[in-house]
Amino acid sequence: MHASTPSRDLVYLAVFTLVVLTMPIWLEPIGAAYPNLMQRFAIYGIFAIGFNILFGMTGYLSFGHAAFLGVGSYAAVWSFKLLSMNVIPAVLFAVLVAGAFAAIIGYVSLKRSGIYFSILTLAFAQMSYNLAYSVFTPITNGETGLQLALQDPRVIDRALGIEARGIPSPGLFGVEMSGYSGFYLCAVLLILCFFLAMRIDRSPFGMVLKAIKSNQTRMGYTGFNTRPYTLTAFIISGMYAGLAGGLLAATDPLAGAERMQWTASGEVVLMTILGGAGTLVGPVIGAGVIKYFENIFSAFHEAKLHAAFAFLPDGLENVLVTITAPFVGEGWHLTLGVVFMLIVIFLPGGLMEGAQRIYGMFRRRPSAGQRAADKFQPAE
Amino acid sequence: MNEFVLQLLNGLDKGGAYALIALGLTLVFGTLGVVNFAHGALFMIGAFCAVVFSRLLQLETVTVDPERLTPWGSPMEIRTPLVQAWLGDFGAFLVQYSVPLSIFFAIPVMLLVGLAMERGLIRFFYKRTHAEQILVTFGLAIVIQEIIKANFGANPIPVSAPAALSGSADVGAWLGLGGGIFYPWWRLAYLGFAISIVALVIVFLQFTTYGMVVRAGMEDRQTVGFLGINIQRRFTVVFGIAAVVAGLAGVMYTPIVPPSYTMGMDFLVLSFVVVVVGGMGSVGGAVLAGFLLGILQSFASMNEIKSILPGIDQVIIYLVAVVVLLTMPRGLMGRKGVMET
Questions:
Q1: Highest mean predicted confidence (pLDDT) among A241-250, B51-60, B175-184, B277-286
Q2: Domain that holds residue A36
């Protein structure tokens, strides 16, 4: 492992910024450079970074994180309905509500650890999901989903004399949130979130979180009360999810309860593990890969496969198409499941570990003395 | 009173399904120490065993009867299931009772699936963290679910119960409460089936030498190993048994809810809650918690209760789980010292 130094981090951040902002250019050749999909990359990247602050740093596996995403979406849509079509209050409101929600759930769930923590978060998320469909229908609009309407009050907009014809769409001081402007807003927020996660990772607070992951009992013996730290991590992570939910609502002002279902929570776990839990950039990569394949693979069908394998002899082409057909289109979840299993079995560190191994193969082997020095580092 | 009895029966019925699935889950955890998120998928595979079996029995031969004509003048086609054509009345009986008979088809299939799963995947995860076990079995559950979806489609497939059991029983008359309480025969059969399977598993564990060794292994695996017993093989067999129990729960459930590829995931979360409420690794706890939560869920869906606490029927199970987990560190009947943090 490299020691992280401020100058290295600066380079890291600069490269990340550059890569994110130039996404429309380098995604072009692989057919993913349309704004709607790139918005999703950025939004789910934020969600996964936030999840990683909890799971990657402290090791607490939450299976209910989608609840915060859903709550954030609802909060943002309500802000559009009641206050203003501006994105800023909506996103702030989403983050705050999700944070408060996370504080309550985290306070209760963090009384336990390990599998019990997972089950508790799962139980809370399922409760929110079921209630959103039943009792809270006045707030959530049940199965239809919460939508904007013509006669919404929009107090601030009306007071400022902003009137829209028809149902207005969310914007940032007149800039519409669909298309490339929406993507750049999400991208800037993604970079900010990444920066924040990096600062947390390098801070003493981040050090405590990682210590909790490696040995919580010993932390207790040394006189640390770990609860406030894990709770803070949980709330931060919930706020990230709320931000992601708010942005989802900002790019498409519709909030439905299915965003809170536990399989949606499972998805963010998949993203984080796939990319590499505990690394900074891994979760973003995981989110991007999953969202990319969700869009690209699910659009494939047999005719396209035939076209893709057309350079092969006919017999071989048909065989290959028959083999690959169940994995694309409707069946892309199958691909996801298989890839995910392979990653957990062979590469528990995710794609980042894979990249590091490949990098390690090409690097000059460290000399024997160097290796010995690595080996006998003091444990404390 | 009538409503009360009806909901009690409903609850016992639901509880039966929960108990059967949770039983296998808790056994696997108690023996192998593995958290198996693919257990719901086993339940689903069981249900689809019933679908496959009844489809096999209903393979038809088409003969054209030139004597009789359809209303639009063409010769009438007569479809008879092959089994009926070969075996006559006995064949008709087989077709009629396809669901209960698929139990005999499901047992070997589930045993094979279970053993393959344990030998092929689970055994490499004994030493890894619970989080990794959850993740890999979650991935497996997705894969199984998608394979089923690719082969059987996304829509629920209705499977009918035998005609003799498709009506309703006058439960009120049996209990001397007067008439008016009717309950489907098939659900009563399911309840009886669930209770007998649970009893069988408990008898196996408590009163056979094999079961005794398994329990000893759950207590102290190392010592049992020192005595020259291949405890690993027995635990693998236990995994197979757990798969069979989950599969049979699925087979018998098909006439109640038509099987679809999501049923595994739907039941997985609930059965996990049941297991932790009962206590990880405790067989009695899983059965108790299964029936308890089933009954509570039914009573919470009564109108009288819903009018006091709206929405309680949606959350009662999770609410109970939260309260139990926070007040009783190892669930209702968990063993002391096992998974208490």
A1: A241-250
A2: 6-260
Residue B334 or A366, more confident: B334
**Three-state SS annotation for A147-216:** ECCCCCCCHHHHHCCCCCCCCCCCEECCEECCCHHHHHHHHHHHHHHHHHHHHHHHCHHHHHHHHHHHCH
pLDDT tens for A30-78 read 877 788 888 889 999 999 999 999 998 998 989 889 999 999 999 999 9
Q: Which residues of B touch A266 (CB under 8 A)?
A: 138
CB contact under 8 A, B315 and A127: yes
Q: Which residues of B touch A330 (CB under 8 A)?
A: 149-150
Among A61, A109, A116, pick the best mutation site for testing chain B contact (most B Cβ within 10 A). Answer: A116
| Residue numbers of A between 309 and 338 with CB closer than 8 Å to B | 326, 330-331, 333-334, 336-338
Look at the pTM and tell me if it is higher than 0.90. no
Residue A362 lies in a domain: no
CA distances from A305 to A296, A324, A335 (A): 12, 8, 15
ipTM: 0.81
The total number of structural domains in chain A stands at 1
The distance of A119 to chain B (nearest Cα, Å) reads 7
Task: Share the mean pLDDT of chain A.
Answer: 84
Alpha carbon distance A306, A113 (integer Å)? 50
Q: Is residue A341 part of a domain?
A: no
Contact in structure between B262 and B305 (CB atoms under 8 Å): no
Would residue A165 count as lying in a domain?
yes
The whole-number pLDDT of residue A35 equals: 85
Q: How far is B310 from chain A (nearest CA, A)?
A: 6
Whether residue A303 lies inside any domain: the answer is no
CATH number of the domain within which A84 lies = 1.10.3470
Inter-chain CB proximity A134 and B314 less than 8 Å:
yes
